[in-house]
Amino acid sequence: MILSHPLAWFDGIDFADADVTRARIAAEFDGWAPELTALVTDSDTAPVLRSIHELPDRHRWVRVPGVTLLGDAAHVTVPGGEGANIAMFERSEAEAAAAHETVDLVFGTGAPHALASLFAGGDPVGDDVTQSR
Ligand SMILES: Cc1cc2nc3c(=O)[nH]c(=O)nc-3n(C[C@H](O)[C@H](O)[C@H](O)COP(=O)(O)OP(=O)(O)OC[C@H]3O[C@@H](n4cnc5c(N)ncnc54)[C@H](O)[C@@H]3O)c2cc1C
Q: What is the DSSP letter of 22?
């Protein structure tokens, strides 16, 4: 389960209060199967905010003598199944664009219907994609 909100949205949650946090997060999944929301409400551990950070897809750094950026320090993007072995900007740009498509497919406004439609051999952005959850 993932929440796609700007960081500022999470500022309104006191993560030090685990029970309130669980209830606040679970409320975002109102209407989901109880077996799934129980993963939030019945958890033994306190919720931890783990944010996903990214640079713009075509981001370039100004060259600075003596400084070399490697890996995500150079081109961090949303997780889409690639990243660890990408070293060149051209490759990382293409993968960053693909990663955004994947994240939108799995977590975007058409989820989960868009992904289910794709698995069924249909159009992931077809007319049947009308719900966000
Ligand atoms: C949820 C998720 C799923 C992913 N799935 C895949 C996948 O399936 N396939 C794939 O190829 N890639 C995947 N990636 C991307 C991949 O994990 C990254 O591209 C890769 O880990 C980047 O390696 P890195 O060494 O550049 O950075 P990191 O792995 O982030 O390493 C940076 C290290 O620096 C440390 N650090 C930070 N600040 C300091 C400091 N001030 N002092 C000392 N140490 C510091 C951090 O603790 C960290 O250990 C995924 C990423 C995420 C978030």
A: H
Whether ligand 1 lies within 6 angstroms of the CB of 53 is answered as no
Distance of CA 72 to the CA centre of its chain: 16
What DSSP letter does each residue of 31-97 carry, written as one string?
TS-HHHHHHHHT-SS-----------TT--PPP-TT----THHHH----SS--TT--SHHHHHHHHH
Looking at the structure, do residues 12 and 76 belong to the same domain, yes or no? no
CA-CA distance, 19 to 46, in Å (whole number)? 8
The confidence score (pLDDT) of residue 125 equals: 59
Which structure tokens are listed for 95? 């993968």
Ligand 1 neighbour 79 (Cβ under 6 A):
yes
Same domain, 16 and 6: yes
Q: Read off the pTM.
A: 0.76
Contact, 56 vs 75, CB < 8 A?
no
Pocket test for ligand 1, best of 52, 72, 76, 92 (most atoms within 8 A of CB): 72
Q: Is 58 found in the same domain as 46?
A: no
Given a cut of 50, the residues of the chain with pLDDT beneath it are 126-133
